[in-house]
Amino acid sequence: MKEDTKIASIGRDKRYTHGAINTPVYHASTLTFDTVRDMKNATANRHKGTLSYGRRGNPTTYALSDAMCALEGADGCFLYPSGLAAISGAILSFVKTGDHILIADGVYEPTRSFAHKILKKMGVQVTFYDPLIGANIKNLIQENTRIIFVESPCSVTMEIQDIPAIAVSAHERGVLVMMDNTWGTPLHFKPFDHGVDFSIHAGTKYIVGHSDAMMGSVSTRKEYYNELCDMSYQMGYAMAPDDAYLALRGIRTLKVRLKQHEKNALKIAQWLETRPEVDHVRHPALKTCPGHEIWKRDFTGSNGLFSFVLKEGHETATTAMMEGMSHFKMGFSWGGYESLILTYYGIKNYRTTTEWNYKGPLIRLHVGLEDPEDLIADLDRAFQRFNDNL
Ligand SMILES: *Cc1c(COP(=O)(O)O)cnc(C)c1O
Asked: Is the pLDDT of residue 47 over 80?
């Protein structure tokens, strides 16, 4: 099946839909049995989509995990109520006291915070590594290293990681590779073709795609799936059926949305390159993004999210810039149809291994589905306010 056909067809098994186009929203905690044999069978096959109890899943969430598996080429997918729950759930399922984990220095900030506040408390040793380290990661692998956590591109600073090289080093030493693949989406980066063992998504972003629900997923190979389910289940993660419905609906238009986000963002990134205020643009499809060559080799597309660094600037100037925007709203998150803007102060404070020596602030944009001409005019006025307050 070609990709477009797959996107339109997956997660629509008649077991779930009963003939409707979309799998309905099943609100269910209890799922009842007709016979004792049915009950025993459901309990014995818990990870295979049998209906037993709402926390384990219901037809709506099973349809979504089937769809995620089909998109990513995974053997199994466990769903979580948010992206961060997927990250913590995946990691906690595979570490114990005394283990060591390697985490990319440019990782999503709440992942770093989880490592500091939860993993360290559990007695798991954490090392942050340079995201551009590539095969040299082998020098950081210890006897007790259990997981290498990658995120490519990194959050905010957008370094692209050499995941195949990292995976080779990891697998030589029996270490698991977990990837936060939210930026790549299941369409633009195929984790299991590049040596990743666990692909994690904040479905909250492009999968849901309309800024109206939260969702996380972890897809993996057969050999790890049962353990992932068992351990994550112990922590009580369960996904709400309404949100699963919205994620399934989001998947249907994921590819067409991404194409438009990609086109709009590239236009804006190229315009930003011509601005005298801009030091450089960190868009994976541009040469000025660290790891651009790897993006070209491993990814099949980009999207609406990227950053740029200003030559100079202070909080008064960036505040004037941000507070007068018409289309770029100030807000966390990304991946919806709308444009967003954020300024990051003190990137240095979020790194422990790599340096960040730029004088000017970093600004992150999520370019939405608005007309790029309106967005460029909005940014042009923003630079005017910035300059007036510099
Ligand atoms: C937003 C985000 C997350 C967390 O997802 P939530 O659903 O907000 O918990 C994780 N990783 C990346 C890269 C993100 O952008």
From this structure: no
The pTM score is 0.97
Q: What's the rounded mean pLDDT across residues 277-304? A: 98
Q: Is 230 a catalytic residue?
A: no
Structure confidence at residue 43 (pLDDT): 85
Q: What is the pLDDT of residues 137-158, one digit of tens each?
A: 999 999 999 999 999 999 999 9
Which of 182, 201, 217, 306 should be mutated for ligand 1, with most atoms under 8 A from CB?
A: 182
CA 259 to each of CA 289, 304, 369: distance values in angstroms, whole numbers, following the listed order: 20, 9, 10
Q: Evaluate whether 23 touches 17 at the Cβ level (below 8 Å).
A: yes
Is 6 labeled as catalytic in the residue annotation? no
Using alpha carbons, select from 221, 195, 198, 219 the residue that is nearest to residue 134: 195
**Top-level class of domain 254-388:** alpha beta
Q: Hey, is 307 helix, strand or coil?
A: strand
Report whether 148 contacts 170 (CB < 8 A).
yes
Phi, psi of 206 (to 5 degrees): -75, -25
Rounded to whole angstroms, how far apart are CA atoms 73 and 196?
12
The CB density around residue 300, as the number of other CB atoms within 10 Å, is 10
Q: Does domain 3-252 have CATH number 3.40.640.10?
A: yes
